[in-house]
Amino acid sequence: MSYTPSDYEFLSNVDLLNDYDQSLAWTPQPSPMDASEPSSFVCRWEGCCYTGAFRRKADLLRHLETIHISPQSFACLARGCHRMFNRRDNMRQHLFRRHENADQIWARFCATL
């Protein structure tokens, strides 16, 4: 199944991942040593330019979430900074490398979770 941007208005990220998983759009490739155990998973999202394979299904699901479903969904927490990131850990790394008082900003953010 392929999705268009308008589909995002009606489906949550979890719904998209579950549907993607259940439709078997991911392709497990058999391991040369044991054909019953998949050794890699390939993204089959329509229009995806990534040609590599993922070792674990969790890695493929992270790729789907951060690249296809909700890219650039984490804005830098520092006032006046408009950088966007596809993963929270990347945003946190930027915050601590580029902004003073990052400890205080991050603590306020974590208190809201």
From TrEMBL:
A GO term for molecular function: zinc ion binding
Protein source organism: Aspergillus nanangensis
Domain C2H2-type: 74-104
UniProtKB keywords: Metal-binding, Zinc, Zinc-finger
Domain of life: Eukaryota
InterPro entries: Znf_C2H2_sf (IPR036236), Znf_C2H2_type (IPR013087)
SUPFAM superfamilies with a match to the protein in the record: beta-beta-alpha zinc fingers
UniProt-recorded name of the protein: C2H2-type domain-containing protein
Keyword Zinc-finger found: yes
